[in-house]
Specification:
The protein has one helix and no strands. With 69 residues, it is mostly helical.
C-alpha cells in the first residue's frame, strides 16, 4: 500500500512542470487574444470618429468633513 502512494506521488511530481507549462501557454494565448480584440475595437471606434478616453471631468461636489464629537 505504501509503495502505491509513493508511485502516485512521483507521477504527480513529474506531471507538474508539464502542466505549469501548459497553463502558461494557455494564459499567454488568452492574453494575446484579449489584446487583439481591444486593439481592433479601439481601431474601429477611431475609424468611426469617436473620441476615446475621458472627455469631461464630472463636477465634484466637495463637502467639508465634519467629525463627530
Amino acid at each position: 500500500m505504501a509503495q502505491r502512494v509513493v508511485h502516485r506521488r512521483r507521477t504527480r511530481c513529474r506531471r507538474r512542470p508539464f502542466m505549469l507549462h501548459l497553463y502558461t501557454a494557455l494564459a499567454e494565448k488568452e492574453h494575446r487574444q484579449i489584446s487583439e480584440r481591444i486593439r481592433a475595437e479601439l481601431a474601429a471606434r477611431k475609424q468611426r470618429g469617436e473620441k476615446l478616453g475621458i472627455h469631461e471631468m464630472p463636477a465634484m461636489r466637495l463637502r467639508p468633513v465634519t467629525w463627530p464629537r
